[in-house]
Amino acid sequence: MAMNPVQLIESDESWIDVSVPIRSGMVHWPGNPAIVLTHTEHLQRGDVATVSSISFGVHIGTHVDAPNHFIMDGAGVDSFRLDRLIRPTRILDLGEVARIRQSDLEDRDIRADERILFKTRNSRYWKENEFRSDFTSLVPEAAGWLAERGIWTLGIDYLSIGAMDSGPETHRPLLAAGVCIIEGLDLSRVAPGLYDLICLPLLLEGRDGAPARVVLRKSRPAKAPRKVEERSS
To answer: Quick one: which of 160, 162, 157, 159 has its CA closest to 173?
Structure first.
């Protein structure tokens, strides 16, 4: 007897999953462990259950970087405060720029305690099977400027916020300032603007990063409180 598909309740339909699906052979950072998904048991083989095994580096797909990814004796991914990864965020569309510079950000009214996600041409690259070394990235000087602004969270739509030739120099000022870095987002289905963010990395004790599930919902304007009419006695 076929089971009925799960029906989403109305409130679920407004959430947009911007995570990259994890699968064997998916694009990964050169030199990092590739992802391998296999079945150790399977119902089709006569086993009592289907059981999968997974092997991968922690910076695969959509993931969060921890300070100890680039800073000696830095905190692990399990140290993040959840309010850095949950609550309002703002998506900025950077268009077709190859390198994100301070001049690209100065007129964006970026403020302290903000969560900022960069939407770039990178989101198109998730359809490709080969790693793109020319992905859009943040230059180190702009990273230092953002760190000085006091933002809480910064995300981008490819495997690294920094270019291949300047990754450590871009990451370090952000991580040293306590900025949570989310990488590997797929923002192809979302427009720039204000959203509610939920980003939950795996709770890997002391590790330098962790895969994460990230969802967004378009922010709704707060409703004005109802006025209570006074009743005459």
So the answer is: 162
pLDDT digits over 39-93, tens only? 999 999 999 999 999 999 999 999 999 999 999 999 999 999 999 999 999 999 9
Tokens at residue 197, please?
A: 């963010």
Q: What are the structural domain ranges in the chain?
A: 14-218
| Confidence (pTM) | 0.89
What are 131's two structure tokens?
Answer: 């790693």
Q: Which amino acid is at 105?
A: L
The C-alpha atoms of residue 184 and residue 28 are separated, in whole angstroms, by 10
Structure tokens at 58: 């922690």
Closest CA to 71 of 199, 178, 200, 189: 178
**Which stretches within the chain are classed as H helix?**
102-105, 140-149, 167-176
Cβ neighbour number for residue 85 with a 10 Å cutoff: 22
**CATH number assigned to the domain covering 14-218:** 3.50.30.50
According to DSSP, residue 158 is labeled S
CA 158 to each of CA 8, 21, 89, 175, 227: distance values in angstroms, whole numbers, following the listed order:
29, 13, 18, 18, 48
